[in-house]
Amino acid sequence: MDNGKNFQFQPGIGDTIRLTMTPEEKYISASEWDKVREFVQGKSRTPLVRELLAEAEQLAGNGYRRSALAEVVTALEVAISDFGRSQNINSKLTTICSERLGIDKLHNQIDTWALVEQ
């Protein structure tokens, strides 16, 4: 202090700061730390659909709704493609409705839809 008079600091232009906190259920708890460490140190990767959905949530949270929608649609397309290529699911589907759909594998139907869209 320079021994001058005290004054109250009041800037002329007011600013507003808004903070939004992530909900607590999104935090990593202490009981999960070992699993997180193992994953980070390991060689495995998060499935693509989950990565796309996490990115979409982040984009939406930051106000980039169009980009978030594009990520979600991409995640849905990847999930549908994975579903169609799954042999376990296809064998069950074939026995249930292959005659009605006229296909022997769901994968063939997905490929047909992709050709129609192009």
Main sheet properties:
none
- The unreliable regions are none
Structural shape: elongated
- Written as H for each helix and E for each strand, in order along the chain, the element string is HHHHH
**Strand-pairing-aware structural class:** mainly alpha
What's the helix and strand layout?
Layout: H1 33-41, H2 48-61, H3 65-85, H4 87-101, H5 106-117
Helix pairs in contact: 2-3, 3-5
Please, could you describe this protein's structure?
There is one protein chain. The protein is mainly alpha-helical and 118 residues long. The chain has two domains: 36-85, no CATH class; 86-118, no CATH class. Helix content is 60%, strand content 0%. It contains five helices and no strands. The protein has helices spanning 33-41, 48-61, 65-85, 87-101, 106-117. Helix 2 packs antiparallel against helix 3. The longest helix is centred in the middle third of the chain and has 21 residues, at 65-85. The chain is elongated. It starts with 32 loop residues before the first helix and ends with a helix. The model has no long low-confidence stretch (mean pLDDT 81).
